[in-house]
Amino acid sequence: MTLVYILYDSINNTVFAGQVWSMLLKFLAQNSYQKIILISFETKLISHNYANPAIQIIQIKRTRYWGKICLILDFLKIIKYLPKQNYQVIARGPFAGYLALKTNQLLLNKPKIVVQARGLASAEYDYSHQQKTPSPKNKPISRMVRQANHERALGKYIWFIYQNIFTKIRVRQLFKLEQTVYSCPDPNLKIECVSNALKDYLMQNFNAHPNQLTIAQNDLPVKIKPSKLATWRKQIRQKFGINLNAEVYCYSGSTHPWQCPELTIDFFKNKLAQDQSAFLLILTNQKTIFEKLLQAASIPMQNYLVLNVNYQQIYQYLAAANYGLLFREAHILNWVSRPTKALEYASANLEIIHNQTIAWLVNKKNQAKI
Fold first, then answer.
1. What is d(CA 250, CA 254) in angstroms, rounded to the nearest whole number?
2. Phi/psi-derived region of residue 76, left when phi > 0, alpha when psi is between -120 and 50, beta in every other case
3. Following CA atoms 30, 32, 34, 40 in sequence, which dihedral angle do they give, to the nearest 10 degrees?
4. Mean pLDDT of the chain
5. Which one of 29, 116, 127, 247 has the lowest number of neighbouring Cβ atoms within 10 Å?
6. Residue 173: inside a domain, yes or no?
7. Do 204 and 138 share a structural domain?
8. What is the pLDDT of residues 149-184, one digit of tens each?
9. Can you give the pLDDT at residue 73?
10. Residue 63 and residue 203 in one domain
11. Are residues 240 and 201 in the same domain?
12. Do residues 2 and 87 lie in contact, with contact meaning Cβ atoms separated by under 8 Å?
């Protein structure tokens, strides 16, 4: 059996190594498939270090998206790479799912298709493109126009209107795309959700059929043995001079607004006021930004460490901590998610401290809440 895996959000995506590549290697280790064809649509062809003799990686330059009709050019590119028979398709997200379903309509031997629903494309676009009125003090536009630079102010306002109209159109396009995929009655289709909250959302908003919905299991990281975690904990703490008896809080991630980095630092500042030996370990690719935030919060340098760590070493560093911090905004995107960082924390046996904005964590019994 051959697996054709269709990816639309790039090999360079930050979650590719943990959620996609490791899953494909797991399939091979379990002898689920003898060969895997990974078809990755990229804005431009890229170089990478991923290699395995049983995995054929094919990069295809994707068409700029202006609506579902643009995807016709992309799904026609897939056909020549498909095996003649005895294969299955897994497509990550609604774009890849749409390509897989459209390709299937042209085939006589129709394979089974699993669409991995990992988020909400329309809601995510809407959230990330929210526009604010283009005035430093939110003055009424009539007052802006009366200012000396009224032409510039008016130009900004027109651009602001255009951006909002475009955003609404794009959100509607993405919603329709998701609806087409998640409500498709194809008997060969299964939709793999990351949480029960996402299952409920797809049924309520996209008319997804409950019999087609499953919960993802194959991309869950393996639980690490306690003995190995204990060894790593001692090694990392000794390497960086962290007290072996200290309570270590770890945040792994970036400084995107929806990741609430300020909440993380405020939480630790309160903990430090209660326990002066508490330690904050931050694993991020935005080291400079975090260091400035910590300095602004007057956190003593001896109580924190900010590191940029390769994904291959992430679990060794997580093992140094007692707790994993995961604060998010109260938004539907977070509520239906199953964050990669939460899975990594759980794999390293960390107690997860969160602010009850993720349904998957709220329903876990062994998690701390604030």
1. 13
2. alpha
3. -100
4. 88
5. 29
6. no
7. no
8. 555 555 655 656 656 787 888 999 999 999 999 999
9. 82
10. yes
11. no
12. yes
Looking at the 3D structure of the chain, how many domains does it have? Answer: 3
Token pair in block for residue 314: 């992430």
> How far apart are alpha carbons 255 and 270 in whole angstroms?
20
Instruction: Assess if residue 221 is contained within a domain.
Output: no
Rounded mean pLDDT of 339-360? 93
Query: What is the per-residue pLDDT for 154?
Result: 54
For residue 112, give the nearest of 80, 83, 78, 87 by alpha carbon: 87
For 102-119, write each residue's pLDDT tens digit.
Answer: 988 887 788 999 999 998
Report pLDDT digits (tens) over 42-100.
998 888 989 999 999 999 998 888 878 878 888 888 888 998 888 999 999 999 999 99
Interatomic CA distance for residues 275 and 293, integer angstroms:
21
The enclosing domain of 63 has a CATH number of: 3.40.50.2000
| pLDDT tens profile 281-315 | 999 989 999 999 999 999 999 999 999 998 889 99
Q: How far apart are CA 356 and CA 330, in angstroms?
A: 8
The 3 state secondary structure assigned to the chain is: CEEEEEECCCCCCCCHHHHHHHHHHHHHHCCCCCEEEEEEEECCCCCCCCCECCEEEEEEECCCCCCHHHHHHHHHHHHHHCCCCCEEEEEEHHHHHHHHHHHHHCCCCCCCEEEEECCCHHHHHHHHCCCCCCCCCCCCHHHHHCCCCHHHHHHHHHHHHHHHHHHHHHHHHHHHHHHHHHCCCCCCEEEEECCHHHHHHHHHHHCCCHHHEEECCCCCCCCCCHHHHHHHHHHHHHHCCCCCCCCEEEEECCCCHHHCHHHHHHHHHHHHHHCCCCEEEEECCCHHHHHHHHHHCCCCHHHEEEECCCHHHHHHHHCCCCEEEECCCCCHHHHCCCCHHHHHHHHCCCEEEECCCCHHHHCCCCCEEC
